[in-house]
Write a structure and sequence with these properties.
By secondary structure, this protein is an alpha+beta fold. It has four helices and four strands. A four-stranded mixed β-sheet has the order 1-2-3-4, covered by helices on one side.
Length: 97
């Protein structure tokens, strides 16, 4: 079994997002790029970005905010993978089932 890559650094908003997810009963694995969330029998894969560092004023991502590998995942991954910047984005998605 191979060990999953741990992100070299985390975005400033990640600890608060993880804390809030755990408070609603979600399982959160941090040994992935960025987090896997298990909730109500489903698994979600999220890349967390700090909006203050990565978003332009119009809400789009700044050049270089997403790595080539992240763009490739967004375009080709057959499972769930989403780039987010807030707990609310995740909660809206996982609790709407």
């Amino acid at each position: 079994m191979t060990k999953h890559r741990q992100a070299a650094r985390i975005d400033a908003n990640q600890p608060d997002i993880v804390k809030k997810l755990r408070q609603i009963g979600a399982t959160v694995s941090l040994n992935h790029d960025d987090i896997l969330v298990g909730y109500r029998g489903k698994t979600y894969w999220y890349e967390i970005k700090d909006p203050e560092k990565t978003l332009k004023q119009d809400g789009t991502y700044k050049a270089g905010a997403l790595k080539d590998s992240q763009i490739e995942l967004l375009e080709t991954w057959k499972g769930h993978y989403r780039v987010v910047h807030s707990y609310e984005q995740i909660a809206e998605e996982i609790t709407s089932i």
